[in-house]
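Problem 12. The chain below contains 403 residues. Write out its predicted structure in token notation.
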Amino acid sequence: MQKWNYRPNVVMYNTIIDNLCKDGNIDDALSLLSEMRGWDIMPNVVTYNSLVDGLCKSGRGKDATRILSDMTEQNIFPDVITFSTVVDALCMEGRTEEAEVILEIMIRRGERPNVITYNALMDGYCLQGQMNKAKEVFNSLVDRGLEPDILSYNILINGFYNKMNVDEAMDLFREMPCKGLKPDIGTYNTLLKGLLHAGRCDAVDHIFHEMKCSDQNPDILTYLILLDGFFKNQKIGKAVKVFHSMLDQGIVPNKFIYSIIINGMCKAGKIEDARKVFSVFLAKVLKPDVKVYTTMISGLCKAALVDEAEELLLQMEGDGCPPDDMTYNIMVRAFLKRGDMHKVKILLLETINRNFKPDASTMSMIVDVLRAEGEDSDFFKMIQSLVPREDGKAVSQTFKGII
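Solution.
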């Protein structure tokens, strides 16, 4: 168009800018904003809304507020979408006080905040654990004649559960039908997660039954929450029952589900069950990631099946899934417990070559070996290689005091 001297209009620019922002090409979108002015085409509120949204989603909150100032300098006044986007971005960055200021400016300019604006502010306070503030925002929403939506309740319910205020969360849940709102799957998932976190497994059974009776079919996230929660509460039987219920519903487990089951079985000492689930995982042609492999290796080590764990470590490499520092720490500790110093040295050398470091538990066990073998041991030299150069002297002095 430009080549043939056709003059683009603001709608055309807005379309391209909006798509660039959605694709994350923010700098290109900002360049087009400058180009518009070069053509004497004035951007409008739609232009700026796209830019503000794109900057906020890219974590560039400060640039978004700068764009907001630029708007007013151009006598283009932000609308409720602009303000709500900025409020949401500031809250996600933990800058709720600044978000409150934006809300006040918005009201002073005669722009009426909507439920989306208040939800963003509530979510910000919930993320910071300031539930009194979040409840104040909820009440001010009602005072301004706005009706809270399902998301408003979900945000508060989740916030109260995170603060372990289960009764307050349940009161909000029971209030929803009185306000003409039907809890959605997000509400139920939040409830289940919160109740399990609080260890109220009996209440979970009731809510799960209520969920199914209200035609809210559990999704894979529901089952993931239930499995993770029941295993953490050591309710192995309930977890197994949930898994079978999931299969009966025709929901195909993903790698996260298998990972939770393997981890839960290993921690419960049911290594044979964990081994079977891991085999099924592989048979389903699902590729385990480093977390799944490390979980299984950890379980085998706890069951004193260190040789089998070592075989799995080698299998990881063959499957194109390199072990991480956690995997090596687990294996080093396992061979230290068994007293196989030859294998420990091999693994420590591999740790050095991969630029990994021992964690606190591994270091503690190595210190015990240093006590026995002395400062001139190979272990001491390895440890010096595993810490930053500037920390070498401090580490040396520490070990001298121990040995």
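Discussion. The CA atoms of residues 83 and 122 lie 15 Å apart. Students who got a different answer should revisit the alignment rule from Section 12.3.
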